[in-house]
Task: inverse folding
């Protein structure tokens, strides 16, 4: 018959002639100490890869996501004002989708360009700005740092964009 940890703990405590209240306190203390250790220890996994002959060629430690990694953060755009217009860029850092929104001034539509350059200065993307929001897709580009230049009404603003 398989005996549980609780049963063994209770039996040992009763053998010492301690009160039931002390036994329960000791048990709860032990559970509070052991449970987090078991929880975090059991999260990592080891994955192996084998070749055609059955030889192990790769060993990976796979870390599971924890709750602290999954915190939902409110996306706060980067903002700057050029004249009477406000430019918002989000999200930065990005995984590939990037949005540029520019506030409109009455009786003055948005006219200008958005350009994206890699770190060596090569132009990757250039487009005219759309009235409300311009979306950029840089998923096909490698991870790294990019420079985005926005030209509005003859004024220029440069932004550092990080792609993860």
Result:
């Amino acid at each position: 018959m398989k005996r549980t940890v609780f049963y063994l703990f209770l039996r040992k405590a009763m053998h010492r002639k301690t009160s039931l209240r002390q036994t329960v306190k000791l048990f709860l203390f032990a559970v509070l100490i052991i449970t987090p250790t078991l929880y975090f220890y059991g999260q990592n996994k080891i994955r192996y890869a084998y070749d055609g002959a059955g030889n192990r060629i790769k060993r990976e430690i796979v870390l599971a996501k924890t709750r602290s990694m999954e915190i939902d953060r409110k996306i706060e755009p980067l903002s700057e004002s050029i004249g009477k217009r406000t430019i918002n860029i989000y999200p930065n850092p990005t995984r590939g989708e990037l949005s540029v929104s520019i506030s409109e001034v009455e009786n003055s539509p948005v006219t200008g360009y958005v350009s994206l350059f890699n770190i060596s200065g090569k132009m990757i993307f250039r487009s005219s700005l759309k009235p409300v929001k311009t979306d950029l897709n840089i998923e096909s580009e490698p991870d790294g740092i990019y420079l985005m230049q926005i030209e509005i009404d003859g004024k220029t603003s440069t932004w550092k964009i990080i792609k993860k």
The first strand starts at residue 45 and ends at 50. The two ends are 54 Å apart (CA to CA).
